[in-house]
Amino acid sequence: MKRLLPILPCCLAAGLQAQTLLFEEGFDGTSAFTLNTTDVSSTATGANTWLINDVYVGGSGEIECFGFPFGFTVPTTAGQPAGISDANGPYLHITSEAAIASGVQNCCFAAADGLCTEAANHFAAMNTDVSTVGQGEVSLSFWWLCGGSNNNYGEVYYSTDGGNAWSAITTPIAQYRAQNAWVQQTITLPAFAEQAQLRFGFRFVNGTALNASDPGFGVDDVRITASAATSSITTGSPAPLSYCQGATVEVPFTIAGSFNAGNTFTAELSNAAGSFSAPVTIGTIAGTSAGTINATIPPATPVGTGYRIRVVSDDPPVTGQANTANLQVVAAPTAGNDVVVAHCTADAVPDLQALVDGGASNGDFFYQGLQLLPDLNVAGTYEVLYIVPGTAGCAADTAEFDISVVAAPDAGTGVSITVCVYDASFSLFDLLSGSPENTGVWTDPEGAVHSGSFDPAVDEPGLYTYEVVGEAPCDPDRAFIAIAVDPCVGIAERSAAPMRWLGQEGEAHLFQLPVNTKVSPVQVMDATGRSSHIGAHAQRQGERLRIGFAGMPSGLYFVKAGDLPVLRVVHIAR
Fold first, then answer.
1. pLDDT per position as a tens digit, 150-181
2. How far is Cα 301 from Cα 309, in angstroms, rounded to an integer?
3. H or E segment at 270?
4. Structural domains in the chain?
5. Alpha helices per DSSP H over 247-288
6. Once rounded to an integer, what is the mean pLDDT over residues 382-386?
7. Could you check whether the bond before residue 69 is cis, i.e. omega within 30 degrees of 0?
């Protein structure tokens, strides 16, 4: 048995660089390989199987296919050259189950004779870890042969996590076939270096074919070696040890030995478990001396606490020792995208937290440097900052809220009035209360544009609308004047009444009285019949009566003086 030897330097051949032997398996005793595992979509059973023996002689046998017996012949496997330890001794190889049943156990496979065989893969894997930490360039070498075809061939795999996950080695050979004599293969990849749990495995792919040929996939003298590094790189631990996704990090490193002009040092980040099986480049610097690499943690780096960084070079190719302290990558805070808000004072004040676009919900709003919100009921333009606090290694993130508050249009408040058909024309706008804007447009009950001056003798009674258009996002505002036109039957007509209304003068109304008529007391009632105190402001001036309506809202009123009939008037507040 030749395997798991101590780390001893040795000279492989005159003139070659000194090598350190890390692992050797010659299959002469208890093997460090587990045969017929289910790794990499492989089967533990089937038409073929992995064997370890020293059988090279072929033979003949019989297999049943489609219910008929078929004879087959397995050729003798090629003898091993003197370069293999214990030449023609035990070796690892694929053998057909049908051949085994016929007493043939050398290197062969069932599909080699074109017989009916189900496709299947067969895997043999190392069951012991090899550490390459602190070593130089690491190589895998082995002797092999395989006839096969395009559908029947051998493959080589490696694992850096103790055999949990396997990666195919495609350089320099992806498919091991078309080789009937023993040859040696050596593979050197950077991925083999600085691994604490390195393993290798061999897979035979039997896709079945009519033109396939023996031998099957055979392997012997598996070795893992490391070259003595003449130059080395030691990666220091950056400070601090916690970084945000997307943050910059300064990676210090020292060197021993010499590096050539045109060399580039590259900082590589491990995964969250500290493995460099798939390192991520985070920064580079050209040079031949020690220094510091300004690197960046990729924004999409998963959160974790077991990251390491190492520095490698390309001339000469050297894989540096990783830093010795675990690094933490934490999630970057995000306030989301900037937000533009348009708000009308007539609408409910918006909930800014509900408008956060893609950001976290644990932020705060700041206006003019203070943790508060402006009065969004007041027209104006406001810039509000939404800030999500940072965590260890991460700065706070900010999103801007640009808020435009627009004053709502004001059409005032309308009324409902009844006027006599013989009343004078009056302005509808004067009937509006509140603070209406004078930029609106009147429409009549049919929806047609109206002048805004109502003539009871001509205009149609009904609902008159005053609309003021607002600036976006405000909707238009409307006020409504409901006008009923009454012929005033049962109340003294204007032309025949003993007392006649002469119209409005300022805030007062003038009336013509009959000669020598008593007009006391004077009563003024609103449209609902309620008495008003303004009758006390009546003043007789000869044959005329002046009644002050100061402070009274626009609308319909009834005036009774002494025993004279009631007279209806329309008051327009000035």
1. 999 999 999 999 999 999 999 999 999 999 99
2. 13
3. none
4. 8-227 (2.60.120.200), 232-330 (2.60.40.1930), 339-406 (2.60.40.10), 416-486 (2.60.40.10), 500-571 (2.60.40)
5. none
6. 97
7. no
